[in-house]
């Protein structure tokens, strides 16, 4: 509309120059309309969000993705669509927030403000309660170092910073479900602790270990073991999925004793 107003105002020039000015202004008006139409036809390009965001992308079996706009909108999944559970919580000054996974639903989500996907890492950013939390998933698939490239490991890094200039107490929680180690939730798993150097590792795998006994496209690995470990962890536990998450949300602690009720089906907590 501004272009049209300018054109009408300019057409009030003296008659001696009216034709040339009218022609010039008409061309300018057409150009302005074309520019306006082009701008309207090309929507603004926002941040890229893939249809599925890679979290753990080691190989077709150890393959975990987020298929929702925000990491805490739904459960994480294997590339075949089956649930492969990873959960993440943070406690800020004694109050718990979800950053990964849809459960526990009674724990509010920390607002997600960004996601950045590169060839080797995915970085989610959350902000609220006076802090900014960055959650990074790194799978070092480096083609110039085959020893590193074939390492079946994904690193998960947490980083928190104050956004209001005040000190805050922030703790983080990460859990991995037994469904990562079986093809079907009806299969039984066993779990234990192991020492790996200076680290304590939590280990889970199928009770039967049917090595190379099944095949198919819609299939997840059900042999071998999943290891979860962290340097300097304040606590570790093996137990019921939601019970552990709620224990951390309540007071920032995990049970002192592991659940020893194994073997049992994955769907049983």
How would you describe what is shown here?
This protein has 269 residues and is α+β, with helices and mostly antiparallel strands. The protein is built from four helices and 14 strands. The strands form four sheets. It has a four-stranded antiparallel β-sheet, with no helix packed on it. A four-stranded antiparallel β-sheet has the order 13-12-11-14, with no helix packed on it. α1 runs antiparallel to α2 (18-41). The longest helix has 24 residues, at 18-41. It is globular and about 55 Å long.
Which regions have little confidence, pLDDT < 50, spanning 5+ residues? 1-38
Total E-strand runs: 14
- Order of H and E elements: HHEEEEEEEEHEEEEEHE
Please give the alpha-carbon distance between the first and last residues: 63 Å
Instruction: Return Rg in Å.
Output: 27 Å
Q: Judging from the principal axes of the Cα atoms, what is the shape?
A: globular
Structural class label: alpha+beta
Largest sheet: 4 strands, antiparallel
Helix percentage: 10-25%
Summed up, the helix count is 4
Strands of the widest sheet, in order across it, are 6-7-8-9
């Amino acid at each position: 509309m501004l272009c049209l107003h300018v054109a009408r105002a300019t057409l009030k020039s003296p008659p001696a120059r009216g034709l040339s000015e009218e022609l010039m202004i008409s061309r300018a008006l057409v150009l302005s309309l074309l520019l306006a139409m082009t701008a309207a036809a090309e929507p603004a390009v926002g941040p890229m969000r893939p249809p599925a965001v890679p979290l753990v992308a080691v190989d077709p079996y150890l393959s975990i993705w987020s298929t929702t706009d925000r990491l805490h909108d739904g459960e994480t999944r294997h590339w075949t669509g089956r649930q492969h559970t990873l959960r993440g919580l943070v406690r800020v000054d004694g109050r718990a927030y979800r950053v990964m996974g849809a459960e526990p639903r009674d724990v509010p989500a920390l607002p997600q403000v960004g996601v950045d996907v590169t060839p080797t890492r995915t970085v989610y950013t959350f902000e609220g309660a006076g802090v900014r939390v960055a959650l990074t998933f790194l799978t070092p698939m480096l083609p110039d170092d085959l020893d590193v490239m074939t390492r079946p490991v994904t690193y998960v890094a947490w980083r928190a910073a104050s956004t209001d200039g005040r000190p805050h107490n922030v703790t983080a929680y990460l859990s991995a479900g037994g469904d990562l180690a079986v093809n079907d939730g009806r299969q039984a798993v066993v779990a234990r602790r192991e020492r790996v150097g200076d680290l304590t590792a939590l280990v889970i795998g199928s009770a039967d270990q049917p090595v190379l006994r099944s095949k198919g496209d819609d299939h997840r690995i059900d042999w071998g073991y999943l290891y979860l470990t962290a340097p300097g962890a304040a606590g570790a536990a093996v137990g019921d999925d939601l019970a552990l998450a709620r224990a951390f949300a309540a007071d920032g602690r995990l049970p002192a004793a592991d659940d020893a009720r194994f073997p049992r089906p994955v769907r049983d907590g």
